[in-house]
Amino acid sequence: MAPVIGVYSQPSGIDGYDPKEYAYIAASYIKYLEMAGARIIVVPYDADQKTLDKLFNGMNGLLFPGGAADLTRKSKFGANAEYLFKKALKANDEGTYFPIWGTCLGFELIHSIVADFPDDVLSSIENEAGVARALNYTSYSSRMFAGIPLYLKMYS
Q1: Dihedral sign, CA of 141, 147, 148, 153?
Q2: Residue 31's pLDDT is what?
Q3: DSSP class per residue in the chain
């Protein structure tokens, strides 16, 4: 059976669509997951906790997509993301594998949640365009990297 993946929406950033009234998910995230064989549940960023609980119980994983939104606990976007993230941590601690993926803004959101939403967790950096940087892994014991081939370990 295909996994059910929740895709977290965000306040609309599209001209003419008030973010207080409209939510947004780029179609590319839905298509990406469908092409990988997943079924999709839209997770409204502004849902109440009862709705989030019901949706969470019907998902096998969650995607925090890229975009633009307020990454603070004060926002409904940040507060509900933190609620779902903590539910996923609890599920994983209790033996139910529940992955969360963050792309761009979603990755920043995860960092903000884990760091407990400090104002300075995200900062600007200067980088030269087109310059590749080495990624140095310090551990291969996680589920994500447990099966990484030796040749990739050698070049990381």
Answers
A1: positive
A2: 96
A3: ---EEEEE-EE--STTS-TTT-EE--HHHHHHHHHTT-EEEEE-TT--HHHHHHHHHT-SEEEE--S----STTSHHHHHHHHHHHHHHHHHHTT----EEE-THHHHHHHHHHTTS-TTSS------TT-------S---STTTTT--HHHHHT-
Separation between Cα atoms, residue 125 and residue 156, nearest integer Å: 23
pLDDT at 50 (0 to 100): 98
In this prediction, the residues of the chain whose per-residue pLDDT falls under 70 are 124-125, 127, 135, 137-140, 154-156
**Per the structure, how many domains does the chain have?**
1
Token pair listed for 73: 């606990």
**Structure tokens belonging to residue 5:** 């993946």
Tokens of 24: 């947004």
In a domain, 35, yes or no: yes
Distance of CA 116 to the CA centre of its chain: 16
Confidence at residue 125, expressed as pLDDT on a 0 to 100 scale: 67
62: containing domain: 4-124
Is residue 74 within 8 A of residue 111, CB to CB? The reply is no
**For the domain that residue 8 is a member of, what is the CATH number?**
3.40.50.880
